[in-house]
Amino acid sequence: MPIKCNLCEAGAILKRPKTGDALCKNCFYFAFEEEVHKTITDANLFVRGETVAIGASGGKDSTVLAYVLKALNQRYDYGVNLVLLSVDEGITGYRDDSLETVKRNQQQYDLPLKIVSYEELYGWTMDAIVKQIGLKNNCTFCGVFRRQALDRGAILMKVDRIVTGHNADDIAETVIMNVLRGDIGRLQRCTAITTGTEGALPRSKPFKYTYEKEIVMYAYFKKLDYFSTECIYSPNAYRGFARAYIKDLEKIRPSAIIDIIHSGESLSVKKAVKLPTQGTCERCGYISSNPLCKACILLEGLNRGLPRLGIGKSHKERRKLNEMLAQKEEAGNEKTTPDNSRETTENASSEKSASGSSKQKCENCSCGQKCLAEKVEDLQLDRRKIDPALIDF
Amino acid sequence: MCSVQEGEDVSPARKEKIVEERTCMKCEKKAVLVTRVNDAFCKECFMVYVTHKFRAAIGKSKLIRDGESVLVGVSGGQASSCLLHLIQEGLSGRAHKKLRFKPGLVFIDEGATIGMSAEERLANCTQVLEIMEKTGFPCYLKALEQAMELEKEAFTNTADQTDTASVTSVENLTKLHRYDKAEEELLALMDSLKSVSAKEDLIKSLRQKILIDLALKKGYSKVMLGDCSTRLAVQLLTDIAQGRGAHVAMDTAFADNRCNDITIVRPIRDFSSKEVAMFNILNNVPSVFIPRITTKAADSVSIEHLTERFVTGLQAEYPSTTSNIMRTGEKLHTEKKSSSENQCAICQAPLDTDVPPSSALSAVRFSETVSRCSSVTLSIFSTDTACCGGGTCQSEGQKESECCGQGDGSCQSKESKLTRDEVESALCYACRLLIKDLGDVSKLPKHILDDISQRQRRTKMKSEIEDFLLDPSNTPD
Ligand SMILES: [Zn+2]
Ligand SMILES: [Zn+2]
Ligand SMILES: [Zn+2]
Ligand SMILES: [Zn+2]
Ligand SMILES: [Zn+2]
């Protein structure tokens, strides 16, 4: 017996992954669009008269986002000018194909399109970067460069705001990643619907509460044209674990994705915990919590033949770079070897803990000296600090 | 789009290859164990390290006073057995600085939740009780179904009532198992919960209620639990996955002060399960294996079970997993609300449901309304999304039932059933998920329903006198 739509007399054609309700095609479109509209209005994402750039990759999320925003802008008269903004990473067989999709979208949706390329912005295509650094950390480069590329493209197009197609699944995954990595700063920021309000262009996620599966359903039934191949330089395995975990959770309890976002939104960080303050990059003026932004460091590394520079959290590398920049010498042949980098870091930290607290007496037991347990804790703490720096060695 | 964002792709260090023969990092003897990251210990140094870690955790917190009565939860499992052994050692004259609190032990039998026979339950209780009695501390035995019969609040001055099965000898064990009616109620409640995740979550809250209740009745001011870091890391991630982000800090901290009179403490929260297991082997600490609701089940049976497999799997590859997760927890805190009306009626944690319009909770509510209530469909251009109250709308048939007629708010009428909405209003986000799985809310334990009814009456009273209150936010305690 055919199931009837929960909302009207028509026959249902799908069960909403988000709520489990059976709906017909039109009622699903309605619910999907209304939810995005509510997300936009509740968070005051749009201001009449502003120009809003949609970060368009040709993939399903940004394709559906462009379609829905155009429809909602007409239906609810937001009064914003929508434009498409694409980044050409320079990945043969992946990006050139997906950019074709974006160009078709531009015609279908009748929206202006701007494409900025890594090559014109940085002088490097991803293909060239991979050729130099291999497949291990390419996603670091891509992530950092894309973020800036979107901003720079947006400034060229004189837009007021960027919206991206990040969906609820992406955000839940990022929450889990940041918990697993103990990164409290990012954990706190990653559920914000809009980021970068100080100085940088505001960047928002209208699909924050939209399930990936429903985006696919929407595109499928609307027959939207999108490009669905994974990046050929696929992301690292660790993120894959978090992704698989979330997919498994969703099977047990479909609301898990939203539940994780609720968790992220209601986390409260101790006041004593210091979060990095944001400044601007000395070289390019981009927002950065260090004197040089990540993109400039990565670029410097590439150009000087030290591609590991800036990957991980090695402060030693950063110091080295600063020295290098100060001396303004050619350092093309200078190389760090894994062994001595590790040694120096460990020596430095053990010296610090030894000189810092060796005279203190143990307060918790009667051992009367700097006690073993604390020493071990210190050591482990130091190890934890250096761990990320050692990843790539 | 590739969802990798700046700086988010750095993954923790993978496991290093462990060298066959290791020597102790403290002395030069042969190592027996490599702890969390890569520190090897010989037996003697390991014992010193573990004992010291335990004492330091208690000492540092400055929470447990000399002579204070502390109720220790014993599950029979590895971690709580390890805790029990450490307490015994610490209190003995041998210790160079004695611990000075007065422990009492309690075991809660949860056999009813997995359909164990009375004989099996008795056998388990006997085994655990044997271990507990050897310590010479006061011992209590409780069954989870007793949570169905608890009062909303325990009064310290109601001395040993008949319904507190304080059993101190094996002969009296049978006394425990006369809670037939309570057992039936618990089973009915468990049956009407569709998912194992919800069952596990509720069992946890009921267990906590029994511990707190017993502590209050018997004059204990702290409850001590043997949660190790591996366990708490799983708890933390499970919390995140179940929408308990706001409660992460309480659920995993050294001290959990969600209940006003009793603080829950976790003195071995820095111990890994590996350290616990090694400690128990080296000291011949006995433990009892008691199956739980997810024992031998598939990974996907519940959120907690899945998370446990996920964390232990990751830990094997990336040894810093547990400590990274715990590090996240260290930096978080749970804001405690002053009034008990702001506590969840089930888990007692502060309510996290007072959220702005742009939030996951209001997005969920909207999704449900927009795909269930046809009147919203008609009012497409209206921002008003109030529900129609008919058709396929979910709130159908949940009309408030009539009170017994005593308008003074003291109505105790059994007929005045709480509606689902009323129950939900007194619950936190995660416990609302639990209730969604529950067919009939009136199957909840009496103390929870009583608590919610009382809140309802008070809310009603307050709305009646609201106009005459000078400061409406001023609530009496
Ligand atoms: Zn319909
Ligand atoms: Zn820069
Ligand atoms: Zn000491
Ligand atoms: Zn040793
Ligand atoms: Zn709760």
UniProtKB/TrEMBL annotation, chain A:
* PROSITE patterns in the record: UPF0021
What residues does the Cytoplasmic tRNA 2-thiolation protein 1 C-terminal domain cover? 279-309
UniProt keyword terms in alphabetical order: Cytoplasm, RNA-binding, Transferase, tRNA processing, tRNA-binding
Region of interest: Disordered: 326-364
Q: Which ranges are annotated Low complexity under compositional bias?
A: 348-359
**NCBIfam families listed in its UniProt record:** TIGR00269 family protein
Protein name per Swiss-Prot or TrEMBL: Cytoplasmic tRNA 2-thiolation protein 1
Automatic annotation (TrEMBL), chain B:
Q: Name one GO cellular component term.
A: cytosol
Q: Where mainly found?
A: cytoplasm
| This protein's pathway | tRNA modification; 5-methoxycarbonylmethyl-2-thiouridine-tRNA biosynthesis
Give the UniProt subcellular location, in the record's own words. Answer: Cytoplasm
Q: Could you mention a single GO BP entry for this protein?
A: protein urmylation
Any single Pfam family the record assigns to this protein: CTU2
Known InterPro entries for this protein? CTU2, Rossmann-like_a/b/a_fold
The task this protein performs is described as: Plays a central role in 2-thiolation of mcm(5)S(2)U at tRNA wobble positions of tRNA(Lys), tRNA(Glu) and tRNA(Gln). May act by forming a heterodimer with NCS6/CTU1 that ligates sulfur from thiocarboxylated URM1 onto the uridine of tRNAs at wobble position.
PANTHER family from the xrefs?
CYTOPLASMIC TRNA 2-THIOLATION PROTEIN 2 (PTHR20882)
Give the protein name, as stated in the record: Cytoplasmic tRNA 2-thiolation protein 2
The organism encoding this protein is Magallana gigas (Pacific oyster)
